Amino acid sequence: MHILPWDLTVIPSKFFLFAEAAQYTLQITFFGILLGLMIGLVAALGRLSHRSWLSAVCRSYIFLVRGTPLLVQLFIVYYGLTSLVTIAPIPSAVIALGFHNGAYIAEIFRGSIQSIDIGQMEAARSLGMPRSKAMQRIILPQAFKRAVPPLGNQLIIALKDSSLASTIAVPELMLKGRQMGSSSFMYMEMFLIVGIWYLIMTSVLSFVMHRIEQRLKVSDRD
Amino acid sequence: MTNETKKTDETILRIEHLVKRFGELEVLKDINLEVKRGEVVVIIGASGSGKSTLLRCVNFLEKAQKGKIFINGKLVKQSEKQLNKVRQELGMVFQHFNLFPHMTVIQNVMEGMVQVKKFPREKARKAASDLLDQVGLAEKADVYPAMLSGGQKQRVAIARALAMNPKIMLFDEPTSALDPELVGEVLSVMTNLAKKGMTMLVVTHEMWFAKEVADRVIFMDEGFILEEANPKDMFSSPKEERTLAFLKQVLPQQG
């Protein structure tokens, strides 16, 4: 007879059955964020560009992505595009996560670029640097540093959001939890395991980001 | 055209009928000015008189609506490409230093030489060392700007501007952001520079510097150059009433 309606003692023994699924979670998050960083940087620079058409394109991208749910974007990539091209579940998840996070990361980069004192650009230009070089040598290195804390935050959000990939048959943590739950009827136990896995991964990421922030603090502050 | 080339020999900077507006506000109204090689010209005037804006227009950090600027006798066209070239000939020193905080002192000085002039790193490092020596900061080469006092920062900024081997140095209130006890070290670097024959256009509130170092003092008022004279005449017998009023305010009363 259990006091609780659940048998929590199975948690340790079933815990490592989720390891492979956790790997998929990490994988789509990692590549999704990597794609997101690339898209985000391009979109941020585009948005800040003096070419108004480019700025408008980037603004529209950010507007569309931020204004619609990730689940919709995921389904558009996986199901919607099938008449054009068939993309496997994992690449679909990476693409959707990349485009989704790219919009948020673009805003993070834009904010950090704009937070750099205008005098930095002026000093670089006064040395005869073209705008692009000044951006690359003077502004971006400082802006990246300021972007680290919000990027860490975005990384953690992306890790948790990757659970939506379970809906397009990516064998990641959430899907594994549902499968294990329905085959054993121990839903609570299995989803607790899933939750613990996410918690461990987000904790490790927080810790790593914190360390990186500490590292970066050493040199500057003007 | 022949007339133009003749002047090239001696006039480093010539400004003709410069007009700058910020929206409705006309900050510079028909400015005409010449600076000859080796000359030290100091611009004084109340805040809001347009002196900083004038300096920023010379470096094209602000784009004037009307007027022409000649550097070395050549009319500057406002294309990005030409501006990048022209700015190399104009060393700019800012009120707030604007050192690059993510680079060490020597990297700050090398940056323009390596990235813009395409010097090999070793050559740039050698030149940067010499310049730091010249401003008395050789021992600070490898520290970050955050570790420096304001006066030291401004001396590094001067070295960074000199590294481009400019034809003229522009100083935009270089000591205004400094604690009083740090003003002297910056002014002495500037004085040395003047003695070495550097052409300088200086916006400052340091009347001592204007008196002692300037070849010519310009008084600006409400967007105009109201009066122009050698320092002796300017400070002892200004012609304009407004100049006199300004000088009375900024100069300590004697006797």
TrEMBL record, chain A:
<feature type="domain" description="ABC transmembrane type-1">
    <location>
        <begin position="22"/>
        <end position="209"/>
    </location>
</feature>
<keyword id="KW-0472">Membrane</keyword>
<dbReference type="GO" id="GO:0043190">
    <property type="term" value="C:ATP-binding cassette (ABC) transporter complex"/>
</dbReference>
<keyword id="KW-1133">Transmembrane helix</keyword>
<dbReference type="InterPro" id="IPR010065">
    <property type="entry name" value="AA_ABC_transptr_permease_3TM"/>
</dbReference>
<feature type="transmembrane region" description="Helical">
    <location>
        <begin position="185"/>
        <end position="209"/>
    </location>
</feature>
<dbReference type="InterPro" id="IPR043429">
    <property type="entry name" value="ArtM/GltK/GlnP/TcyL/YhdX-like"/>
</dbReference>
<dbReference type="GO" id="GO:0006865">
    <property type="term" value="P:amino acid transport"/>
</dbReference>
<keyword id="KW-0812">Transmembrane</keyword>
<dbReference type="InterPro" id="IPR035906">
    <property type="entry name" value="MetI-like_sf"/>
</dbReference>
<keyword id="KW-0029">Amino-acid transport</keyword>
<keyword id="KW-0813">Transport</keyword>
<dbReference type="GO" id="GO:0022857">
    <property type="term" value="F:transmembrane transporter activity"/>
</dbReference>
<feature type="transmembrane region" description="Helical">
    <location>
        <begin position="24"/>
        <end position="48"/>
    </location>
</feature>
<dbReference type="Pfam" id="PF00528">
    <property type="entry name" value="BPD_transp_1"/>
</dbReference>
<protein>
    <submittedName>
        <fullName>L-cystine transport system permease protein YecS</fullName>
    </submittedName>
</protein>
<keyword id="KW-1003">Cell membrane</keyword>
<dbReference type="InterPro" id="IPR000515">
    <property type="entry name" value="MetI-like"/>
</dbReference>
